[in-house]
């Protein structure tokens, strides 16, 4: 939450220069509060696991969050029961006349297909177009980030020679960005991908910046300058055991897979992994919810916001 101070207090400028969120009394006086409406487009195969991971993170805030789960109507899920989808999910058709404060578009294990080969691609394109006018900020994860960068900005994804698999050190590429407030200069994030988006491709796109990268794992966070579209290539939401589960799965299938990097104590897969990214994940999602959703979204959705971050 912001620090509320008198408009003319000298400390205000010092803190603002340090990227600390300070709010004028005049702005604070006018701020109204209501629950935030967040839509989660869950494209992951095991939807219950991903729901739990994401709700855990967006629940870690003093703000009330009303989450609505969405699945693609044009895809029949193999790994999540129809019963679960029927009970807890809506489709785009059910929500397209509404407006949302935030939306999360998850990853999906389809990254080795061309986008156009994904059977719900047309529906996803329609949803991504809709977010531009109907959602205050959209947070895209992993394949969802690749899909968003490709659809909105024509950024290609490229196959990697080796899967990027493990927990990698990441750093800040653009200082004083509200999404990165309070981040350590170096922080760890799980990555688990066969494909990548490249810095040089993103640098060519006017209005899109790279906010965080990893020497080994490449671009981590890219975003439109106004933060309306945020693209995150890693899986900060993963549970401590998720990479182990993926590793054991691939080993059991006889696939060639390296031990996930920087994950097991002494890189020994017989030992239990320890998470080193939970604090980062919580800060990333609470910064997004606070600065790009709550502080930016209009009190009456559809009307212009009174406030702006910058
Ligand atoms: C790059 C990223 O975004 S990483 C995020 C993705 N990570 C994960 O999904 C990790 C967990 N997933 C898994 O471990 C595996 O996908 C499993 C174990 C659940 C299933 O693996 P498999 O049996 O080998 O693959 P399966 O045939 O079920 O296909 C996986 C998914 O891709 C989907 N898929 C495959 N081809 C297509 C296609 N052309 N269009 C759309 N979806 C497709 C399948 O339908 C399935 O998703 P669903 O359960 O939502 O229907
Ligand atoms: N994280 C995914 C990558 C595949 O898209 C997995 O290992 O299943």
From TrEMBL:
Write the record's keywords in alphabetical order, separated by commas.
Acyltransferase, Amino-acid biosynthesis, Cytoplasm, Methionine biosynthesis, Transferase
Binding-site residues for substrate, renumbered to this chain: 163, 192, 249
**What InterPro entries has UniProt attached to this entry?**
Class_I_gatase-like, HST_MetA, MetA_family
Superkingdom, taxonomy of origin: Bacteria
The positions flagged as active site in the entry are 142, 235, 237
Q: Which reaction does it catalyse?
A: L-homoserine + acetyl-CoA = O-acetyl-L-homoserine + CoA
Cellular localisation: Cytoplasm
Oxidoreductase in keyword set: no
Which Enzyme Commission number(s) are on file for it? 2.3.1.31
- According to UniProt, residues marked as the site described as Important for substrate specificity are 192
Indicate the principal place this protein occupies in or around the cell. cytoplasm
Site-annotated residues for Important for acyl-CoA specificity: 111
Q: What does the record give as its pathway?
A: Amino-acid biosynthesis; L-methionine biosynthesis via de novo pathway; O-acetyl-L-homoserine from L-homoserine: step 1/1
Pfam families listed in its UniProt record = HTS (PF04204)
Q: Which PANTHER family match?
A: HOMOSERINE O-SUCCINYLTRANSFERASE (PTHR20919:SF0)
Family according to the record: Belongs to the MetA family.
Its job? Transfers an acetyl group from acetyl-CoA to L-homoserine, forming acetyl-L-homoserine.
Protein name, entry field: Homoserine O-acetyltransferase
Organism of provenance: Cohnella kolymensis
Q: What is the lineage of its organism?
A: Bacteria, Bacillati, Bacillota, Bacilli, Bacillales
Q: Which gene encodes it?
A: metAA
């Amino acid at each position: 939450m912001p620090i509320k101070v008198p408009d003319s207090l000298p400390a205000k400028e010092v803190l603002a220069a340090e990227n600390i969120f300070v709010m004028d009394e005049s702005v604070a006086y006018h701020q109204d509060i209501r629950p935030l409406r967040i839509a989660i487009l869950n494209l992951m195969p095991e939807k219950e696991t991903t729901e739990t991971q994401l709700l855990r993170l967006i629940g870690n805030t003093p703000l009330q969050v009303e989450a609505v789960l969405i699945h693609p109507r044009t895809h029949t899920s193999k790994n999540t029961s129809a019963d679960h989808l029927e009970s807890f999910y809506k489709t785009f058709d059910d929500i397209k006349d509404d407006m949302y404060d935030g939306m999360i578009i998850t990853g999906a294990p389809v990254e080795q297909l061309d986008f156009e080969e994904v059977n719900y691609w047309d529906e996803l394109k329609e949803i991504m177009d809709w977010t531009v006018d109907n959602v205050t900020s959209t947070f895209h994860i992993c394949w969802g980030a690749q899909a968003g960068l490709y659809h909105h900005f024509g950024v290609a994804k490229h196959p990697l020679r080796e899967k990027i698999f493990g927990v990698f050190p990441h750093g800040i590429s653009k200082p004083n960005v509200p999404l990165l407030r309070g981040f350590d200069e170096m922080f760890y994030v799980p990555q688990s991908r066969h494909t990548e988006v490249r810095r040089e491709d993103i640098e060519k796109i006017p209005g899109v910046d790279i906010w965080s990268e990893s020497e080994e794992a490449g671009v981590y966070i890219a975003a439109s300058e106004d933060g309306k579209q945020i693209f995150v290539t890693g899986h900060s939401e993963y549970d401590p055991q998720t990479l182990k589960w993926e590793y054991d799965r691939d080993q059991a299938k006889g696939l060639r897979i390296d031990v996930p990097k920087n994950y097991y104590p002494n890189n020994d897969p017989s030992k239990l992994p320890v998470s080193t990214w939970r604090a980062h994940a919580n800060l990333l999602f609470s910064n997004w919810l606070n600065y790009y959703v709550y502080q930016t979204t209009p009190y009456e959705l559809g009307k212009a916001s009174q406030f702006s971050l910058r």
